[in-house]
Write a structure and sequence with these properties.
The chain is an all-alpha fold.
C-alpha cells in the first residue's frame, strides 16, 4: 500500500476504517516520528478505539513537538480523565 496523504487518511478514519488507517499511520510514523499531523490523527484513532494509553502517548508525542497544540492538550486531558474514571485506584494507592 502506497503512502497516503493526511487528507486521504482522515477520510478513511471518517469512514470508520480505523484499523486500516492505523496500519498506514503506524508505517508513516515509523518512517517519520516527528510529523504532528500523523501523530495527532493516530491519537484520534486510538481515542475512538478507546485505547486510552495509546491515545495519551500519541497526544504526548504531539505536545513534545508542539507544546501549545490545543487539540493534543484537550485529547490528553480527556483520555486522562477517562482513565482516572475507570481506574481510580491507580491514582490513589
Amino acid at each position: 500500500m502506497g503512502k497516503m496523504d493526511i487528507t486521504e487518511l482522515k477520510q478513511l478514519v471518517e469512514q470508520n476504517e480505523l484499523s486500516k488507517s492505523l496500519e498506514i499511520l503506524n508505517e508513516q510514523i515509523r518512517m517519520n516520528s516527528s510529523d504532528v499531523e500523523t501523530l495527532l490523527l493516530r491519537g484520534r484513532i486510538h481515542y475512538k478505539m478507546q485505547k486510552w494509553g495509546d491515545a495519551m502517548n500519541d497526544y504526548s508525542s504531539v505536545l513534545e513537538l508542539d507544546q501549545d497544540h490545543s487539540e493534543a492538550k484537550s485529547g490528553l486531558e480527556m483520555a486522562r480523565n477517562i482513565l482516572g474514571y475507570f481506574t481510580p485506584d491507580m491514582f490513589n494507592p
